[in-house]
Specification:
Elements: H1 4-13, H2 15-41, H3 51-74, H4 88-94, H5 101-104, H6 112-140, H7 147-210, H8 214-233
């Protein structure tokens, strides 16, 4: 019987599929680290107090990239090139979601609307990351090889999501509420489409690596499309609500690490 647990276990047990999974994850996390570092450097003068939190966010993402590379190294594996159709971060950018890389590569300070765009984009994508890592933590939190890494990343993603809620509520109180809600909705609807497309692409690549028969691949693809239908109808709304988090000032300190993943 197919289940999320059995699917992840199958990917974990095969070196080639595990290497592809970790390579995709490491690439996305490293890209997020670069984006946050550039945003922190370009924060406008009136919002400089936000820069250390953005820097911490980027440092966490860099750490996650190192963790996925360390997991491959532990098994004697080298990263592989990430297929273009699985590049979640770049596909979102091509849809105009978040801040364009051309803007981040420049030296012009960002504006408050730019920060609202960044935080709304992060609130949506961190929702996805938090949910996915929570799933992995429940399945593999006690795994002898993966458990510690999964728990650490899951904790960080929850912190990132809390930070986005708190900062967006601060900007909403300052008069940006309508822009925030509009941007959140645009981001959420785009994200669920990109997530569907990336999920289908990842499963297609995994299927070739693992030699899945057509009926199995078809069932998995149907499940991904069914999830998208639910998210397109009502599920996207969970990505646009804002509430004050229990974890206040979640990114108020330095990034946490360990010698293993330094």
């Amino acid at each position: 019987m197919l289940s999320a647990r059995s699917l992840f276990q199958e990917i974990l047990d095969n070196d080639d599929s595990f290497r592809l999974f970790c390579s995709i994850a490491a690439s996305g996390e490293s890209q997020g680290g670069w984006e946050n570092a550039r945003i922190a450097a370009l924060v406008p003068a009136g919002e400089r107090a936000l820069a250390p939190r953005i820097t911490r966010h980027g440092a966490d993402e860099d750490k996650h990239g190192r963790i996925f590379r360390a997991l491959m190294k532990k098994r004697g594996l080298q990263p592989v090139d990430v297929p273009a159709d699985t590049d979640y971060t770049m596909l979102l950018e091509r849809r105009g979601i978040g801040l364009a890389h051309e803007k981040l590569k420049g030296d012009e300070p960002l504006t408050v609307p730019d920060l609202v765009t960044y935080l709304a984009h992060s609130r949506v994508t961190e929702q996805r990351a938090s949910e996915e890592m929570d799933l992995l933590r429940r399945y593999f939190g006690d795994h002898p090889d993966l458990g510690r890494a999964v728990r650490m990343i899951s904790h960080d993603e929850d912190n990132h999501l809390a930070y986005c809620h708190e900062e967006l509520l601060r900007f909403a109180a300052a008069g940006h509420g309508r822009a925030i809600q509009r941007t959140l909705r645009e981001c959420a609807l785009a994200e669920i489409r990109v997530y569907r497309d990336v999920s289908l692409a990842v499963m297609s690549h995994m299927g070739r690596v693992l030699g899945w028969p057509r009926p199995k691949a078809a069932v998995l693809a149907a499940g991904i499309r069914a999830r998208y239908a639910y998210e397109r109808a009502v599920g996207w709304r969970r990505m646009v609500t804002l509430r004050m988090p229990e974890r206040r000032d979640a990114l108020g300190g330095p990034a946490t690490t360990s010698p293993e993943y330094a």
